[in-house]
Amino acid sequence: MQKKKKHPSDFYKKLYKAFCIYTNIDPKAADTQSTVRLIFISQSAPDIKKQLQRLKEAKKKSLEELVSVATIYKIHKKKYPKDQQETKRDPQVHLALKKTVYSCLLNSKAALSTVTTKPKEKSLTNKNIPVMGIGKKPFYCSILQKATVKISNISVSHAFLLEPNSPVNLLGKNLLYKLRAQIFFSNNKIIVWLPQRQLPQLCAALT
């Protein structure tokens, strides 16, 4: 069982070693991947296990993808401990993509903007691009059709990436540049300005 403070990648390495030492299962073999996936999920820490079980087609995900999802969740959860959730929250912005409204985490460190679900309208293209996740391993994201994004009364045209394994939607650098957004820090708050317009809903307590 994964210990509470153990990193998902370290837990996987320990699990891999246990397979090699105590069983006749080759954890790298294609015909044993489903068994290794099942044990990795079932032996993960309870909160991570719950997140992995919620994944669509979790049984078809590669072990690298499962470790990446577990890592993203652990880092995101660690950022705001449970006893601080009453006083601190992630800076969020609400935007409309076509007719679907999303709540996105403001993340100026993220190069690209992503959503975890498609808009209600048909919007998926047949294109995808490689991206580098927190686990430092590249994976592919599908590109949505370019569409009008509305934030407050400001509209721009943008193509989001679809990343269903991410725990949150992300408002990253590429869309912030298009919006000509300026970010200020004042009185323990984040204030985001767009040309001639302040977005008060983006003000949030800093960690």
Automatic annotation (TrEMBL):
Keyword Hydrolase: yes
Pfam families to which the protein is assigned, alphabetical: Gag_p30
Source taxon at top rank: Eukaryota
Sorted UniProt keywords: Hydrolase
Span of domain Peptidase A2: 102-175
The keyword Repeat is annotated on this UniProt entry: no
GO biological process, any: proteolysis
GO function terms (MF aspect): aspartic-type endopeptidase activity
PANTHER family: GAG_P30 DOMAIN-CONTAINING PROTEIN
Annotated protein name in UniProt: Gag polyprotein
